[in-house]
Structures are given as C-alpha cells and as structure tokens.
Amino acid sequence: MTDTSAPETVYLIGSDDTEHAVARTHAMQSSTLRSILEGAFSDSTARINMPSMRGEVLDKVVEYLDFKYRRQHPEDAGNGDGNDNEDVDEDGLANFNIPTALSLDLLLAADYLDI
Amino acid sequence: MISSQRIKINIPKKADMSTDSFEESCALLETAFDNVFSDHSGDVSFEKTYRLVYELVRFRYEAELYKRLREYLTRRFQQLRRTRLDEGSAQDGWGFLERLATLWLDTNRHLKSVRDLTLYLDRTYCDRNRVPGIIEMGLIEFSSCVLMPLKDRLTREFVSGVADIRSRGKLSDSDPHTESLRTLVSMMETILGDEDNFFVEHVQASLLEESGRYYSGLISSIDLQPMQGFTKVKELMRFERALDRTFLNSDAEAKIEKRIENVLIWENFDTMIAPLLATAMTDFSHELLAELYGLTADKRYRLKLKHVIMETVVAYLAAIRLDDTEKKKSLVGAKWALRIIDSYNKYQDLLQQFEFESEPKNQAQKQAQSQEDNDSTMDVDSPDSSGKQSATSLLNETFSRFFQQHRQQSVQFLCFYMDSCLKRTADKTEISAVRKQVLECAKLIKLLPDKDEFTLIYKNQLSKRLLQQRSSVDTERFVVRRISEELGSFFTYKLETMLRDISTSGDIARSFAASQRQRAPEMSFDFAPEVLTMTSWPFQNIDDLVVEDIVLPRQLEAARLGFEAFYNKKYNERSLRWAHNLGSLEIGHQFDRTYHDLVMPVYAGIIFLLFADHAELTTEAIADLTNIPEQELIRQLLSLVMSSKSRILKKSPPTKSIARTDRFTVNTAFTAPTTRVKVQTIVGNLPGIRTETNTNQQLDRERVSATNAAVVRVLKQQHTLAHAQLFDETAAAVRPTFALTPATFKKSLGFLLAKEYVQRDPDDPALYHYLA
C-alpha cells in the first residue's frame, strides 16, 4: 500500500513499522489524531507515525475506533464486517473485547489518543 | 503451560524521557512554537511535539510546563506588538486597524496550533486545576500584552475608521475596511474584560458618542426643507443600518441606531417630521405616512406620531369652513357634516393599516377606572390589552375630541345632515344611497359628547318628516334601529314609539276607510288620520296644539265625526283630540290657465275652501267662519297672499300686513310649472316644533333631572362625598348621555338640597351627605 490511497483512509504506522488503515472519519474521534489531521504540521499527512505504540496495540486501536464509530452512528452500521471480537449483549448492542494481555498498553494508548 | 492458568498482562515497557532533561524539552518545545508563530508549522512534527508534552506531563512537570508556556506567550505577544504595531507607528488610520486585524487572525490560528500541540496538557491539566485552557490563557495574554496597552489608540482609530466609511457615503460588499472592522469587533467581543467584553467596556461608548456627534453635525450643516430633510434622514439611516450590519452585533447595532434616531429624528421632530406628517395627513398621502411611520419601530416615536396625527386631524376638521354662500342654516350644517363624515372615511382609509401604540399604562388604568363607573359605552375607545390601538379606535378618539371642542355645532349639523339625507328618501329612488350615508353618519353619532341633545333635535326633525310625509317610513325605521344600535335603546325609545304611531295610524286609517266605503261610498276625498302618542312626540303642551272649536268644512267635519265614532268603538278608553295644525290638506283646483294640486296646512286649506262658497271675504269674516285663532289666521293669510311661488289668494288693498277689513279673493291668474304645488307657510314653521331656545330649555330640564338621579345614585352608595369628587363621579355617570357642566351640576345640587335629598355638612360646606 502506498500514499496514493484515497484521503478517506489514513494509515497509522506503529513502532514496528506496521501499517494500520483506518477511515479518516473514524480517526477523527481521537482529538489527538484530529489535531494532526487538521493541523498544518510536518506529519499532517495520511501516514502518521506512532512510534510509541506497537502494531498489535494499533490494531486494537483501529478496531476500537471503528467500533466506537458504529456504536455512535448506528444508521451506518449496515456494513457489519463480522468482527470476531464482537459479542452482542441483551440490548442487541455489540460488546468490545479487550484482550487481557494488552489491557495496560491499551489504557496508555487510549489516554494518549484521547479516545 | 504453567502460565496458562494465570491472567497474563503485558507490562508496557518503561517509557523513558526521550530527552535528557526538562530544560532540553522546553527548548525543543520553544523551537516548535517559534516555528508555529512564524507560520512554519510545516517544520514541526506534531507527533514528536505532542509526545514531548505527553512525557513532560507524565513526569509531573505539567505545572511548570504551563507556567513556561504562559511566559513564552507573554514574551511572544509583547514582541509581536512591538514589531507589528508599534513599529512604524506613524502609519495610523487604516494601516493600524488592518495590521491589528491581521495580527488577530494570525494569533487565533497560531494559538489553535499551540493548543493542538499541547493538547495533552490542555486536556489533563487545565480543567482539573481550574486554570484557563491554553487558548483562553493565550487570549488573556494577548489582551494584556497587546490590546490593553493599545486601548486608547484602538478606540480612536476604530471610531475614526467608522467615520471614514460614513463620510464616503457608500458601501461595497467587498470593502476591505469594513472587513477589518468586522474582524476587530469580533476580536474585541472575544476578549473579555472584568465585566463585559472589551468592545462594550472600552470602545462602544466612544463609538456611540461619535456617531451621534457625526450625524448631528451632518444634519445641522445642511439646511433642508422638511421633505428633502426627511429623504436625507431616511437615506442616512438606511446607510447606517447597512453599515452597522457589516461589522456589529445586533446588540450594538440597536444601540447605535437608537442614538442616531435620537439625533436624526428627535432633534428634527418639530421642524421636519411633524410638518411632514401634517402634509401627509392633509394630502391623504398614504405613502408618505407609511414611510414616516416605518422610520423606526421606537415606541416613543410612534406614540408621538400618534399625538401629532390626532392634532392634525382635529386641526383639519376645525379648518372645515362653513359655506357662507348658502342661506339656510340647515344646508350649511348639512354640508359641513358631509365634509366631516367624508374626512372620517378618508382618514379611516388612510390609517386603517397602521396599528398605533396606546398610551402608557398609568393613563390606561385611569381610563379603565373611569370606565368602571361608566357603562360599557366607552369601550369603543379603550385600547385593547396588547397595548396597541386600532386606527378606528384612534379616529374615534380623535373625532370625539373634536366634537367635544365644537359641541353645539356638531350635534346640530349632524342632525341637519341626517335630516337632509332622509328627506331625499321621499321619492324612493335614493334609498340605498341614503342608507349608506346614514350608516356612515351613525358611526359619528356615538362620538358626540351630548347624545341627549342629538336625540332631542333628531326627534323634532323626525316628527316633522313623519307628519309631512317627507321621507320613507321604512328608511326612518332602519335609521332609528341603527341609532339604537349605536347609542342604546334608551335614546331611541321615543323615536320608536313615534314610528309605531305612524304605522298603527296607517292600519287604522285603512280599516276606517274600508268601513266608510261600506257606509258612505260617496266619500269624495282620502282621509289619513294619524293617531300620535302624546308623550313620545316632541309637543310640550297639548293645549297649545288643540283648538277645539275650529269650524271645519262640511266634508271634513263628516270625516272627523265618522273617524271619532270609529275610533271610540275600537278603543273606547281613549280620547282623541285633533291637532289640525299638524296636518295638511291637498286640494285640486282649476285656475284660469292651469290645474293644480295644492298642498297646504289644514288651516290654510280651511280658509281656501271657504272660497268655494264665497267670492270675496274679509279677514273678519274668515275669522268668524273658521274660528282659527287670530295670530294663526294672520300668518296663514299672509302666506297665501305673499309667498312668491304659491300666491293663490289676492288681497285688497295689496299691502304687506293684514288688517281686519282687508278683502280676499282667489287669485285666478295663479299658475305654476308643476301640477303639484306646495303652499309655503311664511313665518316660522308649524307651531309646536320648538325654536332653538326652546330646545335648549328642554335639554336643560332633562339634564338636570338626569343629574339629580345620578347624584342620588352616587351618594346613596358613598353616603358622604366632597364637592369635587361628587362632581367627578356624577360626570362619569352621565357621560354616556352628555358632558356635565358645573352649571347643570349646581342647579341639580340646589334642587336636591332644597328637596332635602342631600344635606350639606354643617362644618364643611364642601361636603355632602345623603339623606335616606
């Protein structure tokens, strides 16, 4: 994948140089990411380096951004991509599973990104 | 796997500071901010800077960081002020304003970037420790480092900038100057001072002051006619409104508008607005009025306009001259009334789409107070609850004020008008037109202050019209019903009785004629007896009317006796008395050249009929043969020989007075262009119809007795009242009928004191007690 991709998608680059695609609208939910994307900084591109996070954490971050977006915009939720990590609670709403092993990493990431 | 039973949590690897020391981090941050402020944010890596802040916060440097940031911004803004505003300070005016506006826009952008970079600090530190967020803190620094030192200069330049645009006199959409002003206002409104925003605290007052001064100077320097002045003012206000809209918020806009209205409208009200309004009102220019009225929605202004409108209308009405070329007073009056009614309609057309402010509360309350004592008749003038007054109600108020000032005239002349209208209904062709006219007139009647006087005069006129069959009875009935709707049946009770008398008389006459035909089919004339209820008709004393021993010609006498017998059979409790002088005779006579139907009063007819048997008669002989009272006889004879159009008797010698020995013969040479000739009666009219003084006397009597009743009613409730208060309450009680004068009141009190209904307090002569 290259930088020529549509601006609707941005890529988060983890410390291990892995790329994680996320829809721009989904990424905007994080005020940190929003500041980057809206600002005029050297790294205000579609490829954002996140050297403080490992790939597996970023994976989870992206997943959560998608999940949160769907949760808040249920009208767009028609395109369910059958994520394995989703349960459905008694309200018919999906739950988000957090792998125990990553919980502390995710806590820090959530704080950093303000999501 | 041993660990499979346990929950395994990865411990994030200990994040070290990516820099060696706090100072080093700060230096890095400062470089980043420098780049931001010099518009080189593209050189700054967001992620790195953000992470720097993140780490500093995580290592508990946040308070220190916040302090450093603040110091940095202070330094930065001070420097900006020096380099971008103070430098080249000779460049004043728009240069300064534009620079400041640009600086403001830049600062906004830069502060936002700084906030983004220090987002983590902003998020975690500011709220929790109740310190202003990064942007707010930046604005505070901006205010204290840039705006406050420049406060006076900014105010001065801003105000003169506005003045500059005003003096150019036109606005263009993309004017960079108005753009700068808008930016600056939004800046000043963003920056908060101690109590309000910067604009309100420091600049607004000068701006208002200067705006007032500017327009005041402008309008007084050009000396214009009202119309041109008004156009100018309209233009200026439109311009100013458009200008203000470009850069001010609605609040400040309204304040400026008010200030300028003060200058442009109030200072010129008497010289400009008032004369124009008068012009609009006298020319019935709807357009001009609408413009004047639409100038501003200020309540005070509209109230004042309303007063001027009322004054103008009253003045206009007062200026309606009586037409002196007409000889008869009734015609003069009718013409006058027609013009008044006409004006009313025109003004109603003119004003109907406007809504007027009603008087301020306290006065409205007073009015309401007086209405409580009053009956409901005053309701028409009271403003409705919304504080607005309709045009009709305004006009009614105005006209009733006018009538108040021209009492006697208005009452009489409106009556004359009604009379002349109704007389035209005799030939049935104009009925619908007359109805319309009378309806219009009826609207004004309720505005008259002395409605009792109106009724009295109207009654006299009605009786004349009815007895002489000068109008259509149907229309009369319609009109009386209408008046009764306007004034209440109290006023029209007697009028209705009169009309009923006429129609009952018609019925009786018909059945009498039928019975006569059976008995004496050869009856040679039409006989139309009219039976009137004494008390309802305006004849004071029946003995003035009835002359018992008149000798009637044979046929008439027969009819009289026949009718008396018929009537007594029908209503045997009632007695009939004949008022011959209210009736009339129609006699067909062949003169030498032409045949004529002569219509004349009964007495004249009796005299004329004598000549069927006699060729020549002396005054004395006529008196003996008829028993007509002497004065009446002389009057009738004079009419028969003197009146220019209906001289049917000749007299010798042909002098202008009647002597007992004068001899009369039929004027056989008489001729006239029409077959039907009305024999005019010369002096005065039918007796029993009162002269003016008579009317006034009766009015006085009625008023005193109405006042008596009112005083007694008032005192019965209050028991004891002081003179002034008693007068007020009594006046309020009789207001629906007439306006109480002190003279009438005094007369009434004198009567009541004498009759001991009321007692004067022995100690205080101004105090009255009710005696049960």
What does the largest sheet of chain A look like? 3 strands, mixed
What are the low-pLDDT stretches of chain B, counting only 5+ consecutive residues below 50? 361-385, 685-690
CATH topology annotation of chain A: Potassium Channel Kv1.1, Chain A
- The average pLDDT score of chain B comes to 77
* Whole-number tally of structural domains of chain B: 5
Count, helices of chain A: 4
**What radius of gyration of chain B results from the CA coordinates?**
47 Å
CATH level 4 superfamily of the largest domain in chain B: Cullin Repeats
Distance between the termini of chain B: 120 Å
**Oligomerization category of the chains in this entry:** heterodimer
Order of the strands making up the biggest sheet of chain B: 3-4-8
Protein name (chain B): Cullin
Family (chain B): Belongs to the cullin family.
GO molecular function (chain B): ubiquitin protein ligase binding
InterPro entries (chain B): Cullin, Cullin-like_AB, Cullin_homology, Cullin_homology_sf, Cullin_N, Cullin_neddylation_domain, Cullin_repeat-like_dom_sf, WH-like_DNA-bd_sf
